[in-house]
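Cross-check.
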Amino acid sequence: MWIPAVLKNGFVITGVQPYWQDVAVGLVLIVAVWFDQLRRRSRDRG
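Predicted model, tokenized:
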């Protein structure tokens, strides 16, 4: 998956601590899955 890798590279460049890198990447992935589920539900309803 390239999105987490791009995020982590950006965080390394900006000097974010490794713990917060993992937290931020996890939050982005959770939000992406949540958004996808909302989109699928609205599509399936018609």
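The mean pLDDT is 93. The chain has one domain: 5-44. Passed to J.P. for a second look.
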